[in-house]
């Protein structure tokens, strides 16, 4: 779960429904599983399933259902974008650490210069050096 705060004084929560089995809270896990694969296991998710089915068959409910599904699709897209960004950041971090390790192995300059070149802290460089 991650929280995204915007300037309109609202809070938006994003859940990764694909990771339903990793949710610690049993009720959250059941709701995420329902969202992900349609299996209603808890009392709440069963009630949610009933309301979704009711919304599909009533004219006013259908509009509400479609509105809800638009929100769900937007949330999925935002979650995908957030996951992509996080992956890119992790990749960059890993690449910088590998560069620092290579520089340490080659012993081409001081830890201070490696920190300056890579943007890592001197403490991070020293920790990497201890692992060699």
Q: Enumerate the spans where pLDDT stays under 50 for 5 or more consecutive residues.
A: none
Strand runs, count: 2
> Roughly how many Å apart are the termini?
36 Å
Q: Please state the overall shape, judged from the principal axes of the Cα atoms.
A: elongated
Helical content band:
55-70%
Strand order of the largest sheet: 1-2
Main sheet record:
2 strands, antiparallel
What structural class should be given to the helix and strand makeup? mainly alpha
Mean pLDDT: 83
H/E element order: EEHHHHH
| Percent range for β-strand residues | 5-15%
**Structural Rg:** 23 Å
Number of contiguous helices: 5
Could you explain how this protein is built, in words?
- The chain has 132 residues and is mostly helical.
- The protein has 5 helices and 2 strands; from the N terminus they run ββααααα.
- It has helices spanning 26-37, 43-57, 59-106, 111-118, 122-130, and strands spanning 2-5, 11-14.
- Strands 1-2 form a two-stranded antiparallel sheet.
- Strand 1 and strand 2 (11-14) form a beta hairpin.
- Helix 2 packs across helix 3 and helix 4 (111-118) crosses helix 5 (122-130).
- The radius of gyration is 23 Å and the shape is elongated.
- The model has no long low-confidence stretch (mean pLDDT 83).
Keywords:
132 residues; mainly alpha
What's the arrangement of secondary structure elements?
Blueprint: E1 2-5, E2 11-14, H1 26-37, H2 43-57, H3 59-106, H4 111-118, H5 122-130
Helix pairs in contact: 2-3, 3-4, 4-5
């Amino acid at each position: 779960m991650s929280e995204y705060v915007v300037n309109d004084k609202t809070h938006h929560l994003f859940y990764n429904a694909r990771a339903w089995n990793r949710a610690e809270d049993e009720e959250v896990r059941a709701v995420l599983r329902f969202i992900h694969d349609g299996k209603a296991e808890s009392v709440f998710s069963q009630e949610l399933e009933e309301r979704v089915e009711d919304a599909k068959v009533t004219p006013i409910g259908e509009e509400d259902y479609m509105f809800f599904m638009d929100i769900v699709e937007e949330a999925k897209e935002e979650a995908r974008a957030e996951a992509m960004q996080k992956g890119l950041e992790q990749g960059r971090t890993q690449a910088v650490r590998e560069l620092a390790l290579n520089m340490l192995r080659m012993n081409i300059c001081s830890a201070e210069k490696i920190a300056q070149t890579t943007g890592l802290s001197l403490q991070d460089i020293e920790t990497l050096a201890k692992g060699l």
